Amino acid sequence: MDFRAFPTLTELDERLPVYLVSVGHWDHQEPTYRANGHPDYQWLQTVSGRGKLQSGDREWTILPGQGFCLYPHEPHAYFALEENWDVYWISFRGSLASPLLQRTGLAGTGVYHVTEPERIASLIGEIYKTTQSSKDYGGIDYSQLLYTLLLELMKTTAPGSQAAEWGYARLRPVLQYMERHYDRPVTIKELADYIAVTPQYLCQLFKRALHMRPMEYMNRERINRSKELMFQEGGIRLYEVAERVGFESASYYSSVFKRLEGMSPDQFKRIHGLK
Asked: Magnesium: present as a keyword of the record (predicted)?
């Protein structure tokens, strides 16, 4: 079933960091040609069928489950390659629209793989339903759901042809392994072997999905566990904390804690009233 909504925007809405301009769904996406581009940021999520996107001198074939991002004022065209091209779409603006897309990895107009396309389509549908029911705080409600959608895209999208290789889904087993073994030394090779990739490729996955290296993530996990320990066992000594969360020495633990938290472990204990 086709649907579309263009919520009335107030001045308050337009001050939100991201705000909804339009949302909809086409059972059969019609050919679209825009010589001057579109004024808004757009995300279009395919459900079934195949299409083609052209922008500048680039061209992409859009497969079922993939999505494509359109940046404002960039000339483009897209059209179906099969009779029924089923597409959900959303348009938005706001001062944080570009930074959020950049953080999500949607760095420009193009086609992106989505590991959970049904979830993205469902969220767009939910935003549409909200436009039909929420009036008192409409713009804020739409913005909240739109932000959720962008965060979901951050976890599930990747450029090029490596859908299953990128994103949180690929790293989830490694992150769970880290959570189970934070209390002992763990090497990058050990983590890479766990999901049968090279250490170099593991670092690429971490950089793409989390914007940090594996050991930096591991240290953050250890520091968080150390804070839990300090609350659970108020009288625990610093060297005991360091040892139980996998640091080789209390001094190294303290330096990592200060770098990540902006204060020493002792300062952390004092501001939280711990002995």
From this structure: no
Q: What is the pTM of this model?
A: 0.68
Residue 32, pLDDT > 70, answer yes
Q: Is the pLDDT of residue 75 over 90?
A: yes
Classify each residue of 136-157 as buried b or exposed e, where b means 16 or more C-beta atoms within 10 Å of its C-beta. Answer: eebbebbbebbbebbebbbbbb
- Find out whether 41 and 92 touch, Cβ atoms under 8 Å: yes
What does residue 197 show for φ and ψ, rounded to 5 degrees? -130, 170
Task: With residue 269 as reference, give the H or E element that holds it.
Answer: helix 265-271
Q: According to CATH, where is 1.10.10.60 located in the chain?
A: 168-275
CATH superfamily of 168-275: Homeodomain-like (1.10.10.60)
C-alpha 43/C-alpha 179 separation (Å) is 34
Closest CA to 14 of 133, 96, 70: 96
Q: How confident is the model at residue 158 (pLDDT cuts 50, 70, 90)?
A: low
Runs of H (alpha helix) within 183-248: 188-194, 199-210, 214-232, 238-244
Residue 54, SS3?
Answer: strand
Q: How far apart are CA 20 and CA 51, in angstroms?
A: 25
pLDDT tens digits for 205-252?
888 777 789 999 999 999 999 999 999 887 899 999 999 999 999 999
CATH topology of domain 3-164: Jelly Rolls (2.60.120)
